[in-house]
Design brief:
heterodimer, A: alpha+beta, Beta-Lactamase, 4 helices, B: alpha/beta, 8 strands, about 30% helix, about 30% strand, binds guanosine-5'-diphosphate, binds magnesium ion
Chain lengths: ~160, ~200
């Protein structure tokens, strides 16, 4: 299939959160989200409880997908950075390592220049972590080692979900 | 493509409702939304035109419960059915874990159904998926209407491989959860054998 499955482990999850926490401080941002290109929220830091994070993740991915479609139409590979300017709050959206979307929400306490600068640095760190993550998942799959919880799933387990 | 998070012990899967315009995809999601307890669902998002035709997609996140200590989430999407929205449909199929094809049982929509299944197969192929290999169920909707095609004929035209199929009336909710449950089950079983 086109994309390997995204898997997240404790170790990398902590590293990722450390990077976006740092970005949050250094860029003076309000909230930062990491979203899978398929629309699933990976992590969020800052004032996350003020936002509907699931919807945000889905719409961000839809947005990236739509602008990606536009890019192809004009002969670009993709638009790797999107910027949405609001009256108070702004969104800086960028693609990290080809498959993850970094969303930074900021207001007048920060600036586009600062956000761009800090995002660039954080992106490199995140790219490296996601590359390790992918490698780890592949190695685990190859060695047949799996802590996958669904191996022993039963019909009853599934039926119970809908009861 | 499902997302397994061992850190937060969550698993997320993406289900896409596909089918010709006005077959009842959005209605399926609306019924699921109405009948799901508040704590188990997120906001339903509809990117629609002023006349309520789906423009880009509908989105409904469901958190149904836990399996083996993992929170199991399903993200339900619909595609816009009209022929000219093909570019949007392709985008929504990205990363799909399972497809529900909603057919409109009315005689005059038979051609549109057939066209839409072909379009589904083609668009999946473009993304590197094979409709015969991914979790897939079919729903024959609008069984309440008078001018409908028999289930045998619908089956013959739309379900040659004999995937699980269901009669439904999404407007009243009949068959809606049976369909959802069937696709969820296939996805989870696929995860089980895939790993
Ligand atoms: N009679 C009848 N009407 C239905 C049924 N399901 C949906 N509809 C109606 O068909 C129209 C189109 O439905 P919608 O969900 O928007 O179609 P979509 O384009 O596939 O999203 C609406 O007016 C629905 O109320 C059904 O089972 N029976
Ligand atoms: Mg619709």
């Amino acid at each position: 299939m086109s994309n390997p499955q995204l898997v997240m482990y404790d170790e990398e999850f902590k590293q990722i959160n450390a990077v976006i926490e740092k970005l949050l401080r250094e860029a003076n941002a309000k909230v930062i989200f990491l979203v899978d290109k398929n629309g699933q929220l990976i992590s969020g830091v800052g004032e996350t409880e003020r936002f509907d994070t699931t919807s945000l993740a889905s719409l961000t991915a839809g947005n990236i997908a739509a602008t990606g479609g536009l890019a192809k139409l004009i002969g670009e590979k993709e638009f790797s950075i999107l910027f949405h300017e609001g009256e108070k709050d702004n969104l800086h959206i960028s693609i990290v390592g080809g498959r993850v979307i970094l969303v930074v929400l900021f207001d007048t306490r920060s600036s586009l220049g600062l956000v761009r600068l800090r995002v660039k640095k954080a992106s490199d760190e995140l790219t490296a972590i996601f590359a390790r993550l992918l490698q780890k998942a592949e190695e685990k799959e190859k060695s047949g080692e799996s802590d996958f919880p669904f191996a022993e799933i039963t019909d009853d387990d599934i039926d119970n979900l809908f009861s | 493509m499902s997302f397994i998070n061992y850190a937060s012990r969550e698993i997320n899967c993406k289900i896409v409702y596909y089918g010709p315009g006005l077959c009842g995809k959005t209605t399926n999601l609306q019924f699921v939304y109405q009948k799901t307890a508040t704590e188990a669902k997120g906001k339903m998002i509809s990117l629609a035109t002023e006349t309520e035709r789906t423009l880009f997609f509908d989105f409904l996140p469901l958190a149904l419960g836990e399996i083996r200590g993992f929170k199991t989430r399903f993200h339900l999407y619909t595609v816009p059915g009209q022929v000219f929205y093909d570019a949007s449909r392709k985008l929504i199929l990205k990363g799909v874990d399972g497809v529900v094809f909603v057919a409109d049982s009315q005689e005059e929509r038979m051609e549109a159904n057939i066209e839409s299944v072909e379009n589904l197969r083609f668009n999946l192929q473009e993304q590197g998926y094979d409709l015969d290999k991914i979790p897939y169920v079919i729903q024959y909707n609008k069984r309440d209407l008078p001018n409908i095609v028999s289930v045998e004929e619908l089956r013959r035209e739309l379900n040659p491989t004999g995937v699980p199929d269901f009669e439904a009336c999404a407007a009243t909710g009949e068959g809606v959860f049976e369909t959802l449950k069937a696709i969820a089950k296939q996805i989870l079983l696929e995860l089980k054998k895939g790993k």
